[in-house]
Amino acid sequence: MKKPVYLLLLSFAFSTSQAVYLEWNPGGEGMIAATASSYFTSANIGALLPEYTVNGAGMNPDDTHQCTWQPIHWVADNGDSQSCWIKFEFDKAYRLAALYVWNYNHTFSSGNELDRGMRKVRITYSQDDVNYSELGVYEFAQATGENNYACNTVVDFEGNNAKYVTLAVVYDPVNPMHNWGDPSYTGLSEIRFTRLSDPVCGDPGTVYLAGDLNKNCYIDLEDLVLLLSNWLKCSDPANIECDL
Ligand SMILES: [Ca+2]
Ligand SMILES: [Ca+2]
Q1: CA distance 66 to 63
Q2: Which ligand sits closest to the CA of 106?
Q3: Which ligand is closest in space to the CA of residue 149?
Q4: How far is the CA of 156 from the centre of ligand 1 (A)?
């Protein structure tokens, strides 16, 4: 006897969290502060502040960075090159997805200062600015010196919760790798963070209750109808006639 078949249009359009750019937005939502161990003040263009790495200064519309000598980069002060750090603060803790880096990218007619770029960098993060966890030590690629320099270092933040993130050079006097070779200065042109959107059903790690047949994180009539639509059917490979 043919079993009755129950039909219902069920939604299987699952979504997952998306990476969202955390904009520079002091006083609002997103990144609200950038501080550093020090900054250099140029006689002709003024202070090279840490916020120039996050406020879009020097960024082209196509998300590349310029190489001109303008207040568009951060440079640690002379004497702080081997111990410098830069710290970023958000308005609240976010599940960070990735860090995008545009290293120090200054060129001029007779040469460049690309060797000022941060190289060996310890990345730590915190929710209270007191207790920090280490994400790891990474090598930041050297900038290209082009006026349309595209991001060439991406660090996976693995969804860790952070309100503060610090990038600190790692100095080894025997084999200095804290920057790309400049003996006096270390700098950075731009960074960006992305965060994961708020958790949604379907994200990796989602817990599904027994009976949540359509895996939408609710047990309701849709699951019951799905169950009934297969009532007394079978898929026993040892009994191909069982569904008749
Ligand atoms: Ca910049
Ligand atoms: Ca369900």
Answers
A1: 10
A2: 1
A3: 1
A4: 21
